[in-house]
């Protein structure tokens, strides 16, 4: 049985202006998974993530890290933040220094590493995120995507166990988005737990191995992508749409081009394979029979 | 502002150790202020112009424009020094007489003001040299090595970053407003401007909160640790700086009649 690394039980949070952003939300996150959190704008995703890192404290309810309740004292907060890193939605909120290297090295130095180790680690992550060439540019001359990568590097350099990405691919060009996904894949292989919020249902469907749907500050759906995304009314309810892979698959079944028993394909590749295999063999025959 | 910063990161001297540039700046500005002969100040102004335009490769038109900025302030200040108001008539070069008072320009007042003007110009050129060739982050680095209190340096770092965030935010709001005809005439213009200023305050407050959150999420606990890349001092450059500044010192002592 795999262990829960982060758990949230019945948490409620109200912003000082009276907005109730989280409303009895319960969520358990298994170690080493790739988790997508989806929900309409204002559903409470970013607010939830700030709780996982101890920046916000729930008004009611409890957050557990590795089975232990988070105490909001300096020491245990630091421990939590060492293990859980957040890449914020807006990189401008995260980059505090005009120098890229300064910003990336900030976290490692805070961990108490000595200068050489911190420098080596920062260098390493800057290579991984392909920002070494930006290192002599001030952050205010970087493009949005470049800033995003710097802010990712700043968190990766701390080597946390759990990495939370608040909309990592929004506003990125397709190539850069692909690069970031490859990076996430590598991190996942290293055994890190990844949590991502996104509005991109296609991405969430093929990337995640577990999905949470959030609406008005509570979880309204969870499960593997194949379970969650085949419920159109639930998705609609959360302001989301059905991933195109599933829609095409359903359409193929409806027009009797493939048999219903075939498992729902996980991504574009599986779908194409399904189409290729069936069109020459069985379905060709099946379609012919129908006439 | 943005262009100065652009050149600070992209000039031919960007690779030089910031300490060397700071040394050159500090010694030269000290000479310019301590030995304010016309000769010294003129040489310093020209020297810095040469360093900025030829050594660092900043276009001379841009540099000239920069010099004109404080030039205007200087001219006003200097005019005030040049004019003296007295009761008794002095050996004015030129004067007007109103009632009991004389207002005019004396030989000495003129000398003083010219001297002041040149001195300020020289000092300003030195400052421009530093800010056009050395990025702010590196200046902060040098100051840190010189044991400047960390509080001051952290403030410098954050303020510097926020200046650009605010500039960006202002630009965005302004564009958004003018694309919806917010500045089509003076009246709407003032209205839009007041809203721009208001939302700037709110936005910068929100943003500073968000930035604090993100610092805290990376284990910030009161100091902005700092990591700088080890850079090599270059003996040749230091020799050059020492030579140039000693020559300047000797010449100005000679010109000032002290030797
Ligand atoms: N600092 C704040 N003060 C007051 N209310 C806030 C604040 N931040 C967020 N909210 C409110 O809390 C609710 C949840 O916001 P949150 O940012 O968590 O949503 P989200 O799911 O991340 O949305 P998005 O997809 O747009 O990023 C919203 O109604 C929002 O208006
Ligand atoms: Mg959000």
Please provide a written account of the structure.
The complex is a heterodimer of chains A (291) and B (259). In chain A, helix 4 runs parallel beside helix 6, helix 5 packs across helix 6 and helix 12 packs across helix 13. Chain A folds into two domains: 227 residues, Rossmann fold (3-Layer(aba) Sandwich); 49 residues, no CATH class. Chain A is 43% helix and 22% strand. Chain A is built from 13 helices and ten strands. Chain A is globular, with a radius of gyration of 21 Å. Chain A has 291 residues and is α/β, with parallel strands linked by helices. In chain A, a hairpin with a 2-residue loop joins strand 4 and strand 5. Chain B has 259 residues and is mainly alpha-helical. Chain B folds into two domains: 154 residues, no CATH class; 93 residues, no CATH class. Chain B has nine helices and three strands, in the order ααααβββααααα. The longest helix of chain B has 32 residues. Chain B is globular. The two termini of chain B are 43 Å apart. Classes of the chains: A alpha/beta (291), B mainly alpha (259). Chains A and B meet through helix 2, helix 3, helix 4 and helix 5 of A and helix 1, helix 7 and helix 8 of B. The structure holds adenosine-5'-triphosphate and magnesium ion (MG). The site of adenosine-5'-triphosphate (ATP) has 13 residues of chain A, from helix 1.
Q: What's a concise summary of this model?
A:
Chain A is α/β, with parallel strands linked by helices. In chain A, 43% of the residues lie in helices and 22% in strands.
Secondary-structure element string of chain B: HHHHEEEHHHHH
Q: Ends of chain A: how far apart?
A: 51 Å
* Overall geometry of chain B: globular
- Binned, the helix content of chain B reads over 70%
Q: What percentage of the residues of chain A does DSSP assign to strands (E)?
A: 15-25%
Strand content of chain B: 5-15%
CATH architecture of the largest domain in chain A: 3-Layer(aba) Sandwich
Shape of chain A: globular
Structural class of chain A: alpha/beta
CATH class value of the largest domain in chain A: Alpha Beta
Report the largest inter-chain contact.
Answer: A-B, 40 and 31 residues
Helix content of chain A: 40-55%
| Order of strands across the main sheet of chain B | 1-3-2
**Biggest sheet of chain A, strands in spatial order?**
6-7-8-3-9-10
Radius of gyration of chain A, in angstroms, nearest whole number: 21 Å
Unreliable residue stretches of chain A = 283-291
Number of strands of chain B: 3
The beta-strand count of chain A equals 10
Low-confidence stretches of chain B: none
């Amino acid at each position: 049985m795999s262990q829960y690394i982060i758990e949230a039980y019945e948490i409620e949070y109200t912003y000082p202006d009276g907005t109730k952003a989280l409303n009895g939300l319960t969520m358990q996150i298994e170690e080493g998974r790739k988790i997508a959190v989806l929900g309409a704008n204002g559903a409470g995703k970013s607010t939830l993530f700030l709780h996982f890192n101890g920046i916000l404290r729930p008004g009611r309810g409890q957050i557990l890290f590795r089975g232990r309740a988070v105490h909001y004292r300096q020491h245990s907060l630091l421990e939590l933040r060492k293990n859980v890193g957040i890449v914020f939605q807006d990189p401008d909120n995260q980059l505090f220094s005009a120098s890229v290297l300064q910003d990336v090295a900030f976290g490692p130095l805070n961990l108490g590493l000595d200068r050489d180790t911190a420098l080596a680690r920062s260098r390493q992550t800057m290579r991984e995120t392909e920002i070494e060439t930006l290192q002599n540019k001030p952050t205010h001359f970087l493009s949005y995507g470049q800033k995003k990568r710097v802010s990712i590097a700043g968190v990766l350099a701390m080597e946390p166990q759990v990495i939370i990405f608040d909309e990592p691919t929004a506003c990125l060009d397709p190539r850069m988005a692909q690069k970031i996904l490859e990076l996430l894949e590598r991190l996942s292989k290293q055994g890190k737990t990844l949590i991502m919020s996104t509005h991109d249902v296609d991405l969430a469907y093929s990337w995640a191995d577990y999905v949470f749907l959030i609406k008005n500050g509570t979880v309204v759906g969870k499960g593997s992508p194949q379970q969650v995304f085949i419920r159109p009314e639930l998705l609609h309810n959360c302001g989301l749409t059905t991933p195109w892979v599933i829609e095409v698959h359903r359409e193929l079944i409806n027009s009797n081009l493939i048999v219903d028993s075939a498992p729902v394909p996980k991504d574009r590749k599986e779908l194409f394979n399904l189409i290729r295999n069936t069109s020459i063999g069985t379905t060709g025959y099946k379609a012919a029979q129908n006439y | 502002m943005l262009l100065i910063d652009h050149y600070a990161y992209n000039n031919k001297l960007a690779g030089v150790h910031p300490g060397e540039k700071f040394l050159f700046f500090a010694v030269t500005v000290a000479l310019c202020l301590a030995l304010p002969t016309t000769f010294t100040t003129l040489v310093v102004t020209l020297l810095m112009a040469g360093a900025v335009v030829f050594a660092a490769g900043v276009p001379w038109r841009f540099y000239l424009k920069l010099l004109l900025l404080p030039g205007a302030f200087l001219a006003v200040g200097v005019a005030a020094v040049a004019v003296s108001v007295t009761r008794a008539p002095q050996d004015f070069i030129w004067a007007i007489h109103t009632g009991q008072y004389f207002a005019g320009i004396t030989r000495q007042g003129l000398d003083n003001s010219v001297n002041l003007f040149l001195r300020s110009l020289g000092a300003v050129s030195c400052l421009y040299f530093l800010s056009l060739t050395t990025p702010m982050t590196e200046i902060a680095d040098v100051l840190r090595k010189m044991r400047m209190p960390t509080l001051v340096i952290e403030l410098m770092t954050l303020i510097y970053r926020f200046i650009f965030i605010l500039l960006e935010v202002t630009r965005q709001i302004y564009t958004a407003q003018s694309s919806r005809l917010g500045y089509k005439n003076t009246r709407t213009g003032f209205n839009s401007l007041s809203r721009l200023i208001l939302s700037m305050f709110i936005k910068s407050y929100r943003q500073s909160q968000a930035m604090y959150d993100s610092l805290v999420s990376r284990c910030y606990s009161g100091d902005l640790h700092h990591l700088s890349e080890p850079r090599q001092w270059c003996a040749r450059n230091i020799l050059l700086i020492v030579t140039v500044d000693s020559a300047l010192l000797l010449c100005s002592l000679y010109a000032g009649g002290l030797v």
